[in-house]
Design goal:
Layout: H1 5-16, H2 21-32, E1 53-56, E2 61-64, E3 89-91, E4 94-96, H3 101-107, E5 113-115, E6 118-120, E7 134-135, E8 141-142, E9 157-162, E10 165-168, E11 172-175, H4 195-202, E12 209-212, E13 215-218, E14 220-234, E15 241-244, E16 252-263, E17 266-268, E18 276-279, E19 282-286, E20 289-291, E21 295-300, E22 305-308, E23 311-313, E24 318-323, E25 326-331, E26 334-336, E27 348-350, E28 353-360, E29 363-365, E30 368-369, E31 377-379, E32 384-387, E33 390-392, E34 395-396, E35 399-400, E36 412-415, E37 418-419, H5 422-425, E38 437-439, E39 445-448
Parallel strand pairs: 11-12, 12-14, 13-15, 14-16, 15-17, 16-18, 16-19, 17-20, 18-21, 19-22, 20-23, 21-24, 22-25, 23-26, 24-27, 25-28, 26-29, 27-31, 28-32, 29-33, 30-34, 32-36, 33-37
Antiparallel strand pairs: 1-2, 3-4, 5-6, 7-8, 9-10, 34-35, 38-39
Amino acid sequence: MRFQRGMFKEAHRAGRGGLPWGLLALVVALVQGGCTRPNPHYCDEATQCPEGLTCLMDLNLCVPADGGTGDGPVLCHVSPECSDPERPICEANQCRQCGSDAECEDRSSSTPVCVGGRCMECRVSADCGPDLPVCGSDGRCKACERDVECLVAGGDPAPVCLSGRCLPSEDVLWVDVAANCSMANGSRGAPFCQIKDAITAALSDPRRAIVAHHGAYQRFEVRDVRLTGLMIVGYPGAGEVRVEGPSNLPVVLVQMEGTITLRRLRLKGASSQDVFSCSDAACTLEEMEIDSGEIGVRATNAQPLVVRRSRIHHNTASGIYVDAYSSYRIENNFIFVNGSPTSLLAAVHFESSFGITEFVNNTVYLNTVAPNNTAGVRCDSNKVIVRNNILWGNRSGTSVKEVNREGQVPVCDVTYSVIDEADLAAAGHNVGMQPTFVSDVAPYDLHLTEGSSGIDAGDGTVAPTGDIDGDARPYGAAVDVGADEWVP
């Protein structure tokens, strides 16, 4: 039978359009009437495909049901049929790796980026949207967890992560002590010069987040008001946002009804006054440095007090003092070198409390009090969960006195901790071996070293999911004791 010219042109066009030449020869043979044996790949309504193959009824051909990982002659018509993530693009009826973003965009708008031959949601965070602003290591967009992630997100975000979203720049009141403040209105282009000015504006402004650029600022107060959701955030990166005050006043005084969060500020006090004081409000301190005052953090009737991922040190009386029926969650902090040989308050002193009373995964080191007083953690009422902590080197005069032991029932419930009181170390899953730090002398780096006691010795049921640096817990077989999760 003579092969028709027009038939050849159609077959040639089919070959250029993507049919493999082996299949093309099969089509030609069928057209010529030269087929002498059954076609094992043929199917129709009456002829079923073998197991693992599915029928393309328009071609009457059996193809792999998995979209491209079998041995059938035709693997795909269009890219969405390619279900193997390693080969997402259909070309010449074969599934292959992607070669460009355009190919992925054409395949599906939900995975528009080509990364390593795979079609993904994102390559970098700028590819993501405002609801899920961070590009994860798996190429998928996810919620933010820390402010610094917002610096590289798409659009024009402020470095403020709130409920998994990066706040748009226009939703923030900006502060820069180095700016020309004659025309200040709190916008990014015309910031306020002082944090206290932004707080005044927030009282009548729907914007509740304040971002301060690096520099030294005057003390501020939030008092005698009712304000919910106020956030004061230091700009991430090199340099500090430092707030200082005179010796007779707290550096930051909060006395109000409502909620306030301070994040990434250094509050530097004077020796005769509190550094941060919270009364009657729900106060949250995150990634703070609080030092050089009399009491680092004082809470009175706080509802609750939350302190996490912070460094509290070199305060002359106490690092954290809680009284007047406050509730609290204190986790992942370095609390060190507070007190003096004449101090009567412990490094962490719970005078009275109610509700949530948790002191978890903190490193309390080298704090000092007068003889016969508690140097580490003192719990004077209620049962406080003291778990996964390093309590070491805290001295009452010349003696070790990590926790108070008054009364028949221990109100400091110390478990899963590294502690240098022998009888406590022998019970409650505690450890009595000295921890090792990167530097246990000034300027003090209390991150753990490899082999340090307490690694993998903590209780994961109450531990936070990350450590003082944001590293995930656990890294090893179990969570580590103290504020740092050791990661090589």
